[in-house]
Specification:
Length: about 80
């Protein structure tokens, strides 16, 4: 199934070179976990601070649950931010 995967700030360099607006469309297996998708892009657990699926926050435990992601979803990830 196809989903859109977005990385922001200091993570965007991990996207493929053909990514547009911090996003790329990827094919994933049904019942894949968010951590399995995140691992494909070499984003460490510590760097995947804020993980959203269609704008809804997914906590650390939820990222290991199969079936959270379905066809057409948008996954967005931000690293921790320091400073003001």
């Amino acid at each position: 199934m196809k989903v859109t995967f977005k990385l922001y700030a200091t993570l965007q360099h991990l996207l493929p070179s053909d990514a547009v607006n911090n996003a790329t469309e990827i094919d994933v297996e049904e019942n894949v976990t968010l951590h399995q998708i995140i691992d494909q892009f070499s984003v460490t657990r510590e760097k995947a601070h804020l993980v959203l699926v269609n704008g809804r926050y997914i906590d650390h435990a939820g990222r290991d649950e199969p079936g959270v992601v379905v066809e057409g979803d948008v996954i967005a990830i931000w690293p921790p931010v320091a400073g003001g």
